[in-house]
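quick one before i forget lol
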Amino acid sequence: MAKEMTLSGCASSAYAAKLAKVEVICSYPIRPYTAIMMELAKMVANGELDAEFIHGEGEHGQLSVVFGAAAAGARALTGSSGVGVTYAMETWRIPLQMMIADRGLDPPGDFGSEQTDAMSTRDQGWLLGWAETPQEAFDNCLINYRVGEDHRVLLPQMVCQDGYFVSHIPGKCSIPDQSQVDEFLPPYKLPHPLDPKRPISHGPQIRPDQGTIMDLQRAEAMLDAPRVIREAIADYNKIFGRNYAPFVEEFMTEGAEMVFFMQGAHAMTARHAVRRLRAQGVKVGLVKLRFVRPWPTEDVANILSKFKAVGVIETSTSYGGAMKGGNLLHEVRASLYDCPQRPLTTSFMAGLGGEMVPLKEFYWMAEVMSNALKAGKMKKSCYWVNHELDA
């Protein structure tokens, strides 16, 4: 039977790792993700979790440890935040997991929700997505292990949560029995594990079976991943009584003319803003993204093309990129390109440097979209929220 607990995102992630029966953990301190490793270290020390806990000499060393462990057949876990993510960054086609609690890159390195750290890695062959709540952080850990370890995928996973707003603010969590997790998540079994009796090679360019080049294999794995994600989330919902959409969730979109499109913790504030605006007669809704990689092109196109205006709320940067906005706007516009009816789109830069995105800023963003609908066009392709005077 599931146990109800009040946990921060970091603590819920540690519980998920424990129930996933991780076997090798490698840590290196950088806040705010450090709290995950503090919880796991206590579990190992108290005999609650039978895992090898290794302190890395740095962020890149962390990944070297867990890539090696996972290549040898162990379910492996590491994590980081901010510049630690960029220091660590490398990729093999080995399905280890990296838990990220976001923070701004240095400088200023603020302890908050900016997602630029993990978003900077989005084209390197990792499964990638954000949690809105501690419950979703827990669930995403198990779902990503199931998807990443599937023989059709075999990709590493970055399981992300916004620093402070999810990582350190407690929320209600339903923690399932070990038997439920075992039903959902089978033991890790890597094809061609490292074995002294059967020497093979693992590396970022080629797999041990010496097939096609690794870049093509990773591309093919990303094409297979959506089907595996849909299967895994359908099973997760059935076993654990959740109601997750695989890729894109809608909130109060029936009858909406315009929507906020976003990912991560600030979606919770957006829900409150949408409720209040709808009560005032403003036809606005929320569409929340669950995976950035693989990007759900068809899901995004089918859902967003129903509306007249889309405000893409960005908490990561893409300096000098197309439309002068963030990363998500590029993906949204590309997804909508072939749609016969395309909504007006703009990018709202908000929450950077770990800042809050309060209700009043959502009201202002809704006003920008409302004015665009009246004018029949967006005035700008990018707005820096709380720094713009004219809606």
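fyi DSSP finds twelve helices and 14 strands in the chain.
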